[in-house]
């Protein structure tokens, strides 16, 4: 089986030195908690902003946007796609937790650019079941950001749609490039 839906080979042996990677993260958490002091915030983001972004490991949203703890909601998935579940989170974010601004961030070199909807068919061939979700693969990242902005701006569940902006993050320079929704 060599389809793109197949599992990649085992990799990153260094991650297993001294326990599993999860063990390492749990140990890091103990160090974090030892220095942690409760800022006493409630659940509403201080900046009243929700950021929808790709899950890409090279995109450190807090560092890239100068965000502090408590500032924003971050909603992430493969591609930063505005799916029904993204809308679910944004609806709760706006209606129950006070956010007013939406920022969409896609990026250069996204894994979704190398996939097609064939991924779903290959999955179906392999496991005998077609997933209910679309892969949301794309070729043109700018157009993909425009489509995401459009999905937010036309969604009936979201009451705050005037301040919706979309960007492409360059993984090599760390810079955001804003996408004009109308071009
Ligand atoms: Zn990505």
UniProtKB/TrEMBL annotation:
CDD domains: beta_CA_cladeD. The keyword Zinc applies. Its cofactor is Zn(2+). SMART domains: Pro_CA. It catalyses: hydrogencarbonate + H(+) = CO2 + H2O. Residues 1-20 are annotated as: Disordered. Transmembrane segments: none annotated. Residues 1-16 have a biased composition (Low complexity). This is carbonic anhydrase. The lineage of its organism: Bacteria, Bacillati, Actinomycetota, Actinomycetes, Kitasatosporales.
């Amino acid at each position: 089986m060599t389809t793109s839906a197949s599992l990649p080979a085992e990799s990153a042996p260094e991650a297993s030195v001294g326990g599993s990677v999860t063990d390492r993260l749990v140990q890091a958490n103990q160090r974090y908690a030892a220095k942690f002091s409760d800022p006493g915030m409630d659940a509403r983001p201080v900046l009243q902003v929700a950021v929808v972004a790709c899950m890409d490991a090279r995109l450190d949203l807090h560092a890239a946007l100068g965000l502090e703890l408590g500032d924003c909601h971050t909603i992430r998935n493969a591609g930063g796609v505005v799916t029904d579940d993204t809308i679910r989170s944004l609806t709760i974010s706006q209606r129950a937790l006070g956010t007013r601004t939406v920022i969409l961030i896609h990026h250069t070199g996204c894994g979704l650019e190398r996939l097609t909807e064939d991924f779903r068919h290959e999955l179906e061939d392999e496991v005998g079941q077609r997933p209910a979700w679309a892969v949301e693969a794309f070729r043109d990242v700018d157009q993909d950001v425009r489509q995401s902005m459009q999905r937010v701006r036309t969604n009936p569940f979201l009451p705050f749609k005037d301040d919706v902006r979309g960007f492409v993050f360059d993984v090599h320079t760390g810079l955001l490039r804003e996408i004009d929704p109308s071009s």
